[in-house]
Amino acid sequence: IHQFITRPTRTLGNRMQAVRERLGDDFTAKLDALHRNALRTGLVSLEELQEAFRKTRDIDLNPNRPNLIWLLGIVFFIMVATPVFYETISFLLGVRCFLPNNYLVWEATRPISDCQFCKGVRAPLILANLTMEEFAPYAYSSLPIIVKKAVSHWPAQKRLSYAYIKDLYDGVPGSMETDCQFLHFNSDLKTLKDVIAMSAERSNLSQGTPWFVGWSVCHPAVLAELRKLYPRPHFLPVDAEMPHTDFILMGYEQGAVMHLDYIPRLMWQAQLKGNKSWFLAPAPECDHQCQPFSFYVEPGDAVLVDTRLWYHANTIPQGQFSLTVQSEYG
Q: Closest by alpha carbon to 250, among 197, 155, 325, 144?
């Protein structure tokens, strides 16, 4: 038995001898005695003890033993690779050039429309300037509405211009550093800084190509100054919630391309300068029940469209400058 424990084998060799030396003579003597007593009982044979020892000795070949390399790989993935992967995906989803405002994701996951909003609608409802009480029956409708001359009394219609906006942003420190949403549509102006940095000749289109942009006014100081030039539309319900940001859209000719807005509320837009043609279309699944149509708005008109349901685009007559303020209510 002692020879069984101590003999060097092809796979064990000096390594087992070193183990015995670390265990000490007293402990190995007890192991030898244990083997002898096991054999005396007759319950196990020498071959069975050798097989048990061989399995213990060759534990590296046991498929149930966790592989150290795999274990280290799993730990590495959990501690390093997973956070890096998460941050990379988060970054790519947030980069507007990779997925512009995530429109591709939103469009792919939007709910299917039941088409009730567009059945029988072939034009907007056109209303003369009216009071809050008169507007109440239409306030939360998905029907496109034009309220004629509703904002013609706003100071913004006379005072708000590209030059005013440029001076305002240049005069408020950090106003262009905030991460406000910016839409360049098809223009070559990729950021708000590009817009504010335009030369006078480019801004009035005496030089360069037509441009059209829009952005969220989310800097508090800039928003406060702008709202001095326009109040909330007087016909909206008194209990309608308003967001803490507004949107400015301005430029020439091309306007906004066909799209949906992924916003939480209904939309109103005040046409302050220039004329604009709107094009509305139902969701693709409603083409067999509804039809697209277009309409025209003039300076001083207010437009209300549920842009969460209606695909919409607009164009501006050649040579005209369009400036609008847009916000939400609900």
A: 325
127 touches 138 (CB < 8 A): yes
Summarize pLDDT for 10-61 with one digit per residue, the tens.
Answer: 444 465 666 667 767 777 777 777 767 666 666 666 676 666 666 655 554 5
3-class secondary structure, 234: coil
Q: Are 131 and 236 in contact (CB under 8 A)?
A: no
Q: Give every CB contact of residue 183 below 8 A, 6+ residues apart in sequence.
A: 101, 213, 214, 215, 256
Q: What is the pLDDT of residues 156-172, one digit of tens each?
A: 999 999 999 999 999 99
pTM as predicted: 0.69
| The two structure tokens encoding residue 203 | 């801004």
| Alpha helices, H only, the chain | 2-6, 14-23, 25-41, 46-57, 68-76, 82-94, 103-109, 132-135, 156-159, 162-171, 192-196, 200-203, 220-226
